[in-house]
Amino acid sequence: MDFNKLKEIAKGKGIKVGFRTKGLYKLIAPMIPDTETVIEMASGFDKNSANSCPIIVTDKNVYFFNFSTWLLGGLDQRIIPLKNVTSLSSGGGLLASFVINDGTAEYEVKGIVPKKANDLIQAINEQKAKRIESSVTPAPSPTTELRELKSLLDDGIITEEDFNNKKEELLGL
Length: 173
Known about the structure:
By secondary structure, this protein is an alpha+beta fold. It has helices at about 5-10, 20-30, 65-70, 115-135, 140-155, 160-170, and strands spanning about 40-45, 50-60, 60-65, 75-80, 85-90, 95-100, 105-110. The model has no long low-confidence stretch (mean pLDDT about 85).
């Protein structure tokens, strides 16, 4: 993804990419494939190191980036495919924590505005639901099933009685 595009998306999500974080977001941008759409973003602090930790939710993955590691010459990133997310939660007072579990590990980011933590959870749940809906194959229509049954009848695989019983069932007669 282009840095300027990510910066504009961040701005639209209420995240300021300024002097201190510009370099980090320049590193992050190419790590988000152009084939993915950014749905939600937030920024908090890694629970273990208290370092800045941007979170990006796309239509396929959840990305975590550790800011302090970048300052030391590297960038710690975690990518969780949406299909692997097993649980989500948030909690806290003025600043919330956001917790995501992928079945093997739990990741927690603290210091997120509670509304943003809830927005992350909602975005992940909506994207997971869309992925499930798109993977479900619709049931064949009664007309399609009747044509298939007629073919089976013509080939002598089922009897006329079987065909008529199923036809009545499909047409609700």
